Each structure stands twice: as C-alpha cells, then as structure tokens.
Amino acid sequence: GLMSTTTLSNGVEMPWLGLGVFQVDDGQEVKQAVIDAIEAGYRSIDTASVYGNESGVGEAIKAVDVPREELFITSKLWNKDQGYESTLAAFEATRKRLDLDYLDLYLIHWPVPEADLYEDTWRAFEKLYQEKKVRAIGVSNFKEEHLQQLIKSSKVTPMVNQVEFHPHLTQEPLRDFCRQYNIQVEAWSPLKQGQLFDNDVLKKIAAPHNKTVAQVLIRWDLQSGVVTIPKSTKIHRIKENAAIFDFELSQEEMQTINRLNKNERVGPDPSTFNKR
Ligand code: NAD
C-alpha cells in the first residue's frame, strides 16, 4: 500500500510514492496540499530550495497528527549554492525553513557541469550525512558520466538519483548503471506534466483496469522499480494518484509502455543546464 517502501543502499526505508510540490505556492496552497496528501496516507514529500515553498511544507508537517519519524522529507540544494561552505549554509537554511531537526533525503538538484563544483558539494553532503543531519544523500539529474566522476572521488555513493522519467523518456541505460551501483532511481515529472493523458496506447491499457492514464503511469513507475512523486494540489487527484496498489500491469502491458520511449524531455538536458 501507500506506505510500502524501498530499502536504500544504507538501509533507510524510502516510500515508493510521494507528493511532488514543484510550482506550488508557499503558504496556504502548499500547506493544504501536503496536509491532504498526508491525511490520504502519503508519507513522502518532495520539495526543493528553489521551489520557494519549504516553509509551507514545514507548517503542514507540524499541522498533521503523524509522528515525524513516519514521514520522509526530501529537499534539494539549488545550483547557485554548490561548493563546500555554501552547501553547508544552504542546508542549514533549508532545515530552518522546514523547521526540522533532520531531513530524510537531500539531493544535489543538478550537476551544473560548467561550474564543476558537484564534487566539492558532495564533500559537504558526506559531512551532513556523517553528522546525521540527513538520513540519506543523493543527486538529481545526474547522467552516467556525472555519476561516474562523483563515485570515483567519493567515500559515499549517492543513494538516490532523481531524474526525468516517463514513457517518452525511459532512461534504460542510466537505470542499468544505477542498478549496478545500488542507486535508487526516482522519477520526476512521472506524468510528463500532463502531456501523456491523451495517448491512445495508454488509454487502451487503462480502460480494462478501470484506471486512469495517470494511475497507469504511476503503476508503471513502481513496476519498473522507480520511486515516483506525481504532483497535484487537488485532493481528488492526490487520492487518485495513490490508488495504484490494487491492480497490476501485465508483462505485455509493461513492454507496450516501454516501447513508447522517444528519449524526449519536458525539462532541460542536464549536460547543458548551467543556470545558477
Ligand atoms: P507531473 O508529471 O507530476 O505532472 C503534474 C501535472 O499533472 C500537474 O499539472 C497536475 O495538475 C497534473 N495532474 C496530476 N495528477 C493528475 C491526475 N490524476 N489527473 C490529471 N492531471 C493530473 O509533473 P511535475 O510536477 O513536474 O513532477 C512531479 C514532481 O517531481 C515535482 O512536483 C517535483 O517535486 C519533482 N521535480 C523534480 C525536478 C528535478 O529537477 N529534480 C524537476 C521537475 C519536477
């Protein structure tokens, strides 16, 4: 069910499903969405410093009647804060905005190859991890070349890589690489930001299961071994996106969805995304 977890390489349990809050306003909007999700049974929330809504997420965590240790809170270090000292300062600012003693997962948001700072940044992540200010550390938008460079020079291998993942971008080589290193892959924009709901192949698969295309997409993530964090602020969709533990896609349906791959992104290419 909703509380089922994957075990990360360091033994930490991470929920397979969480709520993403990209492009959700700070304050009442994000607070209500997070409260609705937790009351619907979600235990994992994915935010980021650059989303500007960590304070509202923190307020929701205080407002609900679920113990902190049952929640799994992720945030991300923004690009301009890469570097050893600036990472330590940015983490502390994030922790204070969330008003938490510790985070469950902290991610380097983008590799920013041009800045060439992600290895220094990772030293700070390792320190935060050793000091138990965060239970697991990982990266986001890292390609194989970035992971390889990081792993070569690090004591701790990232536990998670959060990347764009949906049937138009199935990331098979990168997922194989991550499997070899016991790096859990996590999907962002699992619904391709709404761009797959009209897909006839997906509609045909969804109908006989009495499920929506959104539910098929989220189920396909889980059966692919990928953690997923669909975003919605509407309570009925928050619930709909979690009603995915009572059906199963066949091997044939999984393969049919896999064949929709076009290596097509909605977001930027991490090799050239150097915004700070
Ligand atoms: P998404 O693929 O989750 O799609 C969200 C869109 O689909 C919203 O417009 C929402 O209204 C709509 N929607 C959601 N459920 C629906 C349903 N059941 N029926 C119809 N419409 C529905 O897009 P996303 O927000 O880009 O990605 C999810 C999360 O991933 C983000 O909120 C964020 O937490 C994370 N993310 C991370 C990065 C990164 O660089 N690490 C980048 C983008 C997003």
UniProtKB/TrEMBL annotation:
Q: Which residues bind substrate?
A: 109
* Keyword NADP attached: yes
Keyword Ligase listed? The answer is no
Q: Where is this site: Lowers pKa of active site Tyr?
A: 76
State the InterPro entries in the record. AKR, Aldo/ket_reductase_CS, NAD(P)_OxRdtase_dom_sf, NADP_OxRdtase_dom
**What's in the keyword line of the UniProt record?**
NADP, Oxidoreductase
Stored SUPFAM superfamilies: NAD(P)-linked oxidoreductase
In the record, what terms sit under GO molecular function?
A: oxidoreductase activity, acting on the CH-OH group of donors, NAD or NADP as acceptor
Q: Which family does it belong to?
A: Belongs to the aldo/keto reductase family.
What protein name does the entry list?
Glyoxal reductase
Organism for this UniProt entry: Halolactibacillus alkaliphilus
**Gene symbol?**
yvgN
